[in-house]
Amino acid sequence: MNHPARQVGDDDTDDDCMSTDDAAALLTRYRHVRDASLVHCASLQTEDFGLQAVPETSPAKWHLAHTAWFFETFLLRPFLQGYTEYNAGYAYLFNSYYNGVGAQFPRAERGLLSRPTVEEVIRYRAHVDHAMAQLLNQQDHRDIAVILSRTRLGLHHEYQHQELLFTDLKYNFHCNPLLPAWQPATLPVSDTQTPQTWHRFAGGLSHLGVDEEPDQFCFDNETPRHQTLLQPFRLATRPLCNAEVLAFIEDGGYRNPALWLADGWARVQEGRWQHPLYWQQDAHGAWHNFTLHGLQPLDPAATACHLSAYEADALARWAGARLPTEAEWEHAANSQLAARSPAASPALSGHFLDQGMRHPTAAAADTGPLQQLFGSVWEWTANSYSPYPGYRPAAGAIGEYNGKFMCNQLVLRGGSCVSARQHIRPSYRNFFYPGDRWQFSGVRLARDDRPETAR
């Protein structure tokens, strides 16, 4: 597929500014979001849709079917009178983890599902979309408020799976020695590297999270809004770049157990990690980086990504710093946005939207005191993924969306170059296991603001 000037799903329209009772506007947004998933897959061959290299990734075909399953399960079955299932077996095949609605096909075996075919999955999506249009046109439905609320949740669920389409395809393609590309292109190499400096924050009482009933959509794990006390701290003005990770490698960082947490060092040994995921050296020692656009020369100034939390922590320790807490990160992000005009939205620093490219760039010094907070790489924080004080998941199976995963994972902030614009906000809490590397994750350093660390 060519690289259009703009792609479906990448526009600036904010569906969450609409009135919650505007079913017609929500139906328009529904069609737009659903079409975007297919646009993202337009460059794939049929054989690409079934790839699953490891249990953590899912085939593109499964993502397309599962997002349709979500609308069918949580909206059409309970609310559309006379709805007929496309295939009763899909309730089992495409349930991800919702125990409250039945059993699930094993996650690690999704790549074994040659049937339904890609064409059949697309027909399934069309069947669900037609029924959803019928449902949303029933504005006098007695449960219309719940229908609209769940539809909005379903759309943001689809945004998340559009992001996973990119991350999973990249990993699956990387396992092929031919290193196929999602969309072949030559990525630009930066001329200069923006210096990393430190921005000071005074600390004090700050608010974390959003209101229970915010003006715009949020996930339940972003609530409730509450106070937190911050000590003075400093945050790096940009995430670490490839050149700094190269320096870590050349200094023996992957061979020095003193830099690593015990679990991290065990993972380094087990996986024989010597560099970030997708990096490789040629016979002449030159570094290259596999991207969604094919194998590229490593850009030293570009933001480093596909780092696990273990690598992020080791890099921070090597640099004489630490990872920020999520409260520090959100406070810094809100402070930066507050310094701009009230109507300003987060700057998306990692997107090549004009070229349709999906890879983090180098930081630009003219974008504010903190560069690439949004839309470049997900930034690891030091916090475990746990509930905010007063958090309560929704009742029923829909409550399994976030709350049941609040164990053994760490929080990331900021959004990446493959995230939906609608998920770029200071309060968004992403979460992954500390050893995960296939996400577009990087690291921004933090320090306590003490005299010996002030710079």
Query: Widest sheet: strand order?
Result: 12-11-10-13
The CATH superfamily of the largest domain appears as paralog of FGE (formylglycine-generating enzyme)
How many angstroms separate the termini?
48 Å
Mean pLDDT over all positions: 91
Report low-confidence residues grouped into runs of 5 or more. 1-14, 350-355
Radius of gyration: 22 Å
Strand % is 5-15%
> Count the strands?
14
The H-and-E topology, N to C, reads as HHHHHEEEEHHEEEHHEEEEEEE
Question: What's a concise summary of this model?
Answer:
By secondary structure, the protein is an alpha+beta fold. It is built from 9 helices and 14 strands. α2 (60-79) runs parallel beside α4 (118-136).
Topology:
Layout: H1 23-40, H2 60-79, H3 90-93, H4 118-136, H5 144-174, E1 198-201, E2 204-208, E3 226-230, E4 233-236, H6 242-250, H7 262-271, E5 279-281, E6 287-291, E7 294-297, H8 309-318, H9 326-338, E8 351-352, E9 357-358, E10 378-384, E11 410-413, E12 430-432, E13 441-442, E14 446-448
Parallel strand pairs: 10-13
Antiparallel strand pairs: 1-4, 2-3, 4-14, 5-6, 6-7, 8-9, 10-11, 11-12
Helix pairs in contact: 1-4, 1-5, 2-4, 2-5, 7-8
How would you portray this structure in words?
It is a single chain. The protein is of the alpha+beta class. The protein is built from nine helices and 14 strands. The strands form five sheets. It has a four-stranded mixed sheet. It has a three-stranded antiparallel sheet with strand order 1-4-14, with helices on one face. Strands 5-6-7 form a three-stranded antiparallel sheet, with no helix packed on it. Helix 1 packs parallel to helix 5 and helix 2 packs parallel to helix 4. It is globular, with a radius of gyration of 22 Å. The termini are far apart. The relative contact order is 0.14.
